[in-house]
Amino acid sequence: MTYDAIVIGAGHNGLTAAATLARKGARVCVVEKNAKPGGMALSGTLDGVEMPRMAHLVYNLNPRVLSELGLSNVNLKPLKTVSLSPDGNHVVLDGNRATRVDGTPHPEATAYAARYDDLKRFSALLAPLAERSAPGVSFGGRKLDKFSELMAAARIGLKLKLLGRRNMREFLRILLSNVHDYTLDELSDGPIAGAMAADAVKGSWSGPRSPGSVLSLMYRMSGSGPAHVMGGIGKLTEALAEAAQSQAAEIRSGAGVARIFVAEDRAVGVLLDDGSELRARTVLSSIGALQSLKLAGVEHFDAETVTRLRNIRTKGTAAKINLVLGGVPTFSGLPSDLLGARIVIAPGSTYVEHAFNPAKYGEMSEAPVLEIVMPGQIEPGTTQPDRHGMSILFHYAPHDLEGGWTDAAHARLLDITLATLDAYAPGLRQLVVASEVLSPARIEAETGAPGGHWHHGEWSTDQMLTTRPASGLAHYRFAVRGLYLCGAATHPGGDVTGLPGRNAALQLLKDGACA
Amino acid sequence: MTRPNTPDTLVSVKIGMIDTPFQPMLEPLSESQAWYSWAGYKSATSFRNVDLEYFAIRNQATVFDISPMCKYRINGPDALRVMDRLVVRDMKKVRAGRVAYVMWCDEDGMVIDDGTAFRFAEDEYVLFCQERTYKWLCEIAWGFDVTVQDWQSALCGLAVQGPCAFSVLKDAGFASIEDMKPFDLRQVEPGLWISRTGYTGDLGYEIVTFPDHAPPLWHRLREAGQRWGLIPIGYEALDIARIEAGFLAPGRDFQPSHKVSRLHRGRTPFELGFGWMVDLSTGHFNGRRALLEHAAKGPRYNLVRLDIEGDAPAGNAYVYAGKSFAGHVRSAAWSPTFKRNIALADLKAPWGKSRKKGLWAEIYVEQEGVWQKRNARTRVVEGPFMNIPRARMTPPQAY
Ligand SMILES: Cc1cc2nc3c(=O)[nH]c(=O)nc-3n(C[C@H](O)[C@H](O)[C@H](O)COP(=O)(O)OP(=O)(O)OC[C@H]3O[C@@H](n4cnc5c(N)ncnc54)[C@H](O)[C@@H]3O)c2cc1C
After folding, report:
1. Is-same-fold flag (B13-67+155-245; B300-386)?
2. CATH match of B13-67+155-245 with 1.10.150.120
3. DSSP secondary structure of A482-505
4. Contact A302 B142 (CB under 8 A)
5. Which residues pair with A434 in a beta bridge?
6. Is A446 helix (H, G, I), strand (E, B) or coil?
7. Pairing of strands A483-485, A277-285
8. Alpha helices, DSSP H only, in A131-247?
């Protein structure tokens, strides 16, 4: 039989694309190389404890994705953020409020609220851009596309105007600036600025002093704030899979794609690793852009496109450490009711920048930025008394580590993590019952993401909107007719947003590609 | 005490033009000592007198040093696939031992350059062209099993052109090329290849060899050529012959698309009159999707051959259709053989194709410090300006 669409990769974007298409009546088959769907948003187990394997929170999951697919069973629990300070003066961030751990206002509360409110307002402005195909830059081209693109741009322009003169100036001033200068204009170089800096650079090959980091912070703040998916992040991808399957989409796990078939300049199916072939009218790929191109064959793409995709920067910097602790840790100066918060070790913006420096020379941070989540503390009752999962994001662990990602390098990364934690939670190291370290190299091996990169390709001003994945490839169309990209490598980018998958599916339908 | 940076201790870096392997033999023959830089090499504008050299092309035999041409070797199991990916033409039809005139385009379907692809063997090509294009070839070849080498100085060559070209080569000991048809290529001696190709539209051959073979080759040709009036020629005479033959000069008749930054300065093969070469049916090649759209929409410009009234040199003249601007003359020459004022002109579509009537050229001529404007009627010429049967006859006749 011939499917209307084959989706490569059952990460949350592939699944969102599949569910979106299936709801419109398309016959869809998702093919995933791993045994379990989920991609980077996957629940795993460590020593019997269920744990988010890679991604652990949602920051900017798009509400439209949930509502359009009717995912009423996905429940999000917003989390406070605790930004730890070495002197014990930790900060609790909850929306635009900044307090001490005892609930009293933080001395910088007003300055923080002003920064937060501005960023929220501006990110709302950019949201419409993320929810649609990025405008294409072409000469000639399809007139209708261009008209609707113009209208979208005009709408943003109009909204900008409605913000008023001060806001408009401020927006344009900070848009391409760096988060370090932006926060330190009003805030001290402490844990509040540190937490903002950490949110801005997560997953990127950049530090808070890198230009464009304000923009990435806005991107991350475009949702309703950090939230835990009840039941674990895997519940989201499971719900997406069910939404697709309930509309008769097939999901084939353990089915890696070896090749995308192209006949007469059209994508017509895929060859699986086991040698079997599937036929389809369209193919959507949620894996990296250059990887997708190679699956289809370099010969089907103009050399300019190949060169641009080869030049996409894909050096991953995020590692993941999962721990099982034999008891509940104690963080100095942190009341235990805050253990269910998102705990960040980024005690200053300069600290974050310094953490980035070694990455430039192929070394891992000795004083890393950590983001810690304890699912069992967020959902009490889901854990056993002597088994506590701790999910930790580590920055920066460069993909191209000097000497390679050997066992010793993984052990070193774990050691640095535990030493860093121990400084804030003395004795934590002794609680460790089980651990696993996912370096960018391991993330790449497991998910196929180039460089193990969080976004499947750096999220930066030169690789966004029209130039994501590369100029000349707007509207998710991937040169060959009927071939689309639908993952983090495309507009608007990575994070668990669901937008690339949704937008790509809608574009394909609009193009009438599988009709 | 020594002072390290006195002029006599400085290393002198050689500047100026490079000699081709034939230059030591050519230079003493030049009476005019008129040289120009062709891709950094010292090349002759003329040796004595342009008219003389031109008539030798059409009546005797000439030799022109083609060593400065850019040459790239593409070699390996995927060589054919890479050539097919590069050029707009179907290279599967070009066998080993053949040469093909080719064009290649960017992603917008605009011509980057044209040249000749020599298929030395099943898996080995050498591409001859005007523009440096190594980086582009590497990009085209990425992901394929081939090596791309810049052979600009690894090979040198001579073009022997004119009705007596075959006779010269025969007397020089290359009689075995007698049965070679136009665009045939053959290794005639170790390290020496001859192709029946050229830039004059006349009977002619190109000889390609390694630099250390250059002096003996030269002397053989000189010796054999004496009976046949073989003379060295410069670019100016060749340029008249190539305009008569209707060959394009990159940078003059079209702007190589990698050299222009302004939009719409590039031209598609269709617009240059080479639509016949574009094979849209045999899989993807660079720029194919853009060319499909261009094919559907039709050309924006037409490069056409013009016959211009009078004898005023028409280079760069404006061309009008009635009162409206239609385009520019690119290359122009007085054709001594046909006694016509001929030109290649880039006209806005539909001028030159479906609308040809009423075209005239606005030519400015200077006489003793006074500029005069001449309006000359022009006619679009279908097909080549010249058609010389001897250029194609096999075996070639001895004149
Ligand atoms: C360590 C880490 C932590 C993160 N934490 C967060 C977080 O807390 N919050 C957040 O919002 N974002 C986080 N991110 C980013 C986020 O997880 C990703 O941007 C997002 O999940 C990408 O989704 P996707 O569907 O586009 O791609 P993926 O989730 O990467 O899915 C691609 C799928 O394709 C499959 N595949 C690959 N090759 C083939 C093939 N040849 N054939 C078949 N299948 C194939 C892979 O196995 C995979 O399942 C994190 C990323 C990393 C690396």
Report:
1. no
2. no
3. TEEE-STTSTT-SSS--HHHHHHH
4. no
5. A324
6. helix
7. parallel
8. 143-162, 165-174, 179-184, 191-201, 213-220, 233-245
Cα distances (angstroms) measured from residue B324 to each of A489, B267, B300, B318, B372: 50, 22, 16, 11, 21
Is the pLDDT confidence value at A143 over 70?
no
pLDDT at B3: 59
Whether residue A469 has pLDDT greater than 60: yes
- Establish whether residue A58 lines the binding site of ligand 1, counting it when its CB lies within 6 angstroms of any ligand atom: yes
Q: pLDDT category, B291, cuts 50, 70, 90?
A: very high
Interchain pair B293, A303: CB under 8 A: no
Length of chain B: 399
What's the whole-number mean pLDDT along residues B250-255? 94
Task: Name the token pair of B295.
Answer: 């094919």
- CA torsion sign for B71, B74, B75, B81 is negative
Q: Report yes or no: B312 and B290 within 8 Å, Cβ to Cβ.
A: no
Contact predicate A15/A240, CB 8 Å: yes
Six token digits for residue B358: 């009423």
Q: Distance (Å, rounded) from C-alpha A80 to C-alpha A478? A: 40
The strand pairing partners of B372, in sequence order, are: B365
Nearest to A303 among B140, B289, B293 (CB): B140
Q: Write the CATH number of the domain with boundaries B300-386.
A: 2.40.30.110
Determine the number of helices (DSSP H) and then strands (DSSP E) in chain B. Answer: 8, 19
Please tell me if residue B143 touches chain A, with a CB cutoff of 8 Å: yes
pLDDT at site A197 = 98
For B187-192, the CB contacts below 8 A with 24+ separation are B187/B120, B192/B217
**Hey, where are the domains in chain B?**
13-67+155-245, 300-386
- Coil, helix or strand for A403? coil
- Residue-wise pLDDT tens digits, B185-231: 999 999 999 999 999 999 999 999 999 999 999 999 999 999 999 99
A196, two tokens? 């903002």
Residue located nearest, by CA, to atom 48 of ligand 1: A39
Neighbours of B132 (CB within 10 A): 15
Dist. CA B153–CA B210, nearest whole Å: 9
List of E strands, A9-163 = 28-31, 43-46, 49-52, 76-78, 81-83, 91-94, 97-100
Mutate which of A34, A40, A317 to test ligand 1's pocket (most atoms within 8 Å of Cβ)?
A: A40
List, for residues A490-515, the tens digit of each pLDDT value: 999 999 999 999 999 999 999 999 87
Residue A97 CB neighbours (<10 A)? 15
C-beta separation of A257 from A31 below 8 A: yes
The answer for residues whose C-beta is within 8 angstroms of residue B281's C-beta and 6 or more apart is none
Catalogue the E-assigned strands of B122-199: 124-129, 147-150, 156-161, 185-189, 192-195
ipTM metric: 0.93
Beta carbons within 10 angstroms of residue B382's beta carbon: 8
Structure tokens at B156: 């040198």
Digit-coded pLDDT (tens) for A24-37:
999 999 999 999 99
Give the distance (Å) from ligand 1 centre to CA of residue A454.
7
Angle between helices B50-59 and B235-245 (to 10 degrees): 50
- Mapping DSSP to helix (H, G, I), strand (E, B) and coil, where does residue B2 land? coil
DSSP string for B330-381: EEEEEETTTTEEEEEEEEETTBTTTB-TTEEEEEEEEETTEEEEEEEEEEEE
Cβ neighbours for B190, distance < 8 A, ≥ 6 positions apart: none
**Assigned token pair, B344:** 């290649």
Q: Which residue type occupies B254?
A: F
Domain annotation for chain A: domains and CATH numbers? 2-75+232-313+455-511 (3.50.50.60)
Beta-carbon count within 10 A of B174 CB: 23
